[in-house]
Amino acid sequence: MKILVTGGCGFIGSNFIQYLLTDKEIGEEVMILNIDKMTYAGKGRNIEHMNLSQNKNYEFIEGDITNMELVNYIIAKNKPDIIFNFAAESHVDRSIENSNAFEQSNFLGACNIFKAALNNKIKKIIQISTDEVYGSINQGNFSEESFLNPSSPYSSSKAAAEIMALSYFKTHNLPVIITRSANNYGPYQFPEKILPLFITNLIEGKKVPLMWSEENPGLNVRDWLNVKDNCRAIWFISKNGENGNIYNIPGENEKTNYEITKIILRYLGFGEEMIEKVPHRKAHDFRYSILGHKLKKLGFTYIHKNLEEEIEKVIEWYKNNPDWWRPLKI
Ligand code: NAD
What we know:
The chain is α/β, with parallel strands linked by helices. 39% of the residues lie in helices and 17% in strands. It is built from eleven helices and twelve strands. Nicotinamide-adenine-dinucleotide (NAD) binds next to helix 1, strand 2, helix 4, strand 5 and strand 7.
């Protein structure tokens, strides 16, 4: 099976490639073509440990999905059986500072993938999206039928790509499926995101910047999903999902940012004096919460359920891999 992965040098994309190439669950030979622009978040360092230059089942092209000519050329030449579009700018704070790259890569880049897939009659496209497209919910949960109400330029660019994908399904019958996952955690996550930032700061003896105010002392809730389970779910959905459908992938592990911070502090032997209270970001979503009924009905089951234990493993990974993250810290 020929698989095109975009953004395969990023956090989730690189974990996905490792899963495809090494996990028994896959059960068939896969040929992977990875296109990545190698932004600050990729740089290729996430896949170095897999020694892929010698692997006949893997090919890498340094390229930008906003380049339609390139995207069309690669898809026409390789005719993949399936495309997984992970490529995106992914950091909310950066999208608040400047949304240009988010509009380009997350929306226009995704449109290029849909157009080239249509031109070349590709049989399956998985558009990787996020629970952030729903916006915030104080109580209850979002299902796939809920309205989109994104708050940040990041989540809006992801929602825009989804709407275009679904219009290509309705208009042209493009065989596209959308996954909306919760916050991922695991190895090889760029140390600007809360979990690796806090872990690596503490390893370096620095404080952790927790968004805080008198009315909201670190109480924003995120749902935590192990990156390996996300990769498994994305693959599972590509096999079992229905075209034109959206599938939530919850982590089923909601925690406030304050609670997550305390787990990390405790494990690394620090107290709350290491918390640096910083102001909330603009339009800071209070709580993300999605239901996974549709995914469960397809028969998907999780492997990595114990959040505290899994976070401890991630902390150990960052402790044991300073050569990976130290050069990436700003
Ligand atoms: P990441 O920032 O770690 O990696 C993104 C990768 O995409 C990088 O390797 C980067 O070089 C590449 N890229 C960016 N723009 C590109 C372009 N124009 N052309 C080609 N490559 C480009 O992000 P991530 O956390 O791995 O997220 C992957 C996908 O999953 C994104 O679509 C994101 O919206 C989605 N997602 C992430 C999370 C999460 O918790 N990290 C949760 C839900 C959904």
